[in-house]
Amino acid sequence: MNKEELINKAECIVKKKIAGYDSGHDWWHITRVRNLSKYINDRENLEDSFLVDLAAMFHDYGDSKFSGNNHEECYLEINKFLNDNGLGDLNNRITDIMKNVSFSSKMRSGNIEDPVLLIIQDADKLDAMGAIGIARAFNYGGFRNNLIYSPVKEENKNSTINHFYEKLLLLKSMLHTETARVIAHERHEIMEVFLRQFYKEWNFNGV
Ligand code: ADP
Ligand code: NI
User: Fold this and answer.
1) Are residues 64 and 136 in the same domain?
2) What is the four-CA torsion angle of 40, 175, 63, 78, rounded to 10 degrees?
3) pTM of the model
4) Is residue 122 part of a domain?
5) Which ligand is closest to the CA of 103, given by its number?
6) Fewer CB in a 10 Å sphere around the end CB: N or C, the chain?
7) 140-165, pLDDT tens digit by residue?
8) Parent domain of 95
């Protein structure tokens, strides 16, 4: 089986798995992360493009928000896919990336310094920033029935606007590659502009 056929097969199992995820973690998120990973890898010239694409494809396959505590089952499914398709030697690398990619991961298995992990982490973070990041945050907040915002401090703790301060505005400084930092610049600014406008409208007192 050639690489294109393997990628097509991988696409099928990922699409099936994430069918129940929210639209911030759907097939289009995977597509954007694959695209960003390829762009970063091409410019940084770090790794084999096939491996980067597979890692991007599987990066959310075992996401705890959706798989509950069935991580091991998810990893085994990917192991089986790789073994069945003659890619068994990639098992440890891909599984380590799946375990460690998440910003909020509680599954960290040490400090793996695989350049592929660093690329996928950067790509995943970039997709949580900018206009898409804003859209994903409010989509996720709606999915969880969270408040958009509250001027009451206690109530605001679980709001989507608060998520900007807890996570989204911090992402810029957590990137590994120079290419990702360049892409992040505009995405970070857009979020700051958005927040300024948000408060201006919230506190409206005339034009
Ligand atoms: P990671 O995949 O790095 O663990 P998450 O899965 O936590 O990141 O986040 C994925 C997406 O969901 C991001 O766009 C993030 O902003 C959004 N998200 C996660 N938690 C919240 C939250 N509490 N409120 C709004 N958006 C959230
Ligand atoms: Ni992701």
Assistant:
1) no
2) 40
3) 0.92
4) no
5) 1
6) C
7) 999 899 999 999 999 999 999 999 99
8) 1-115
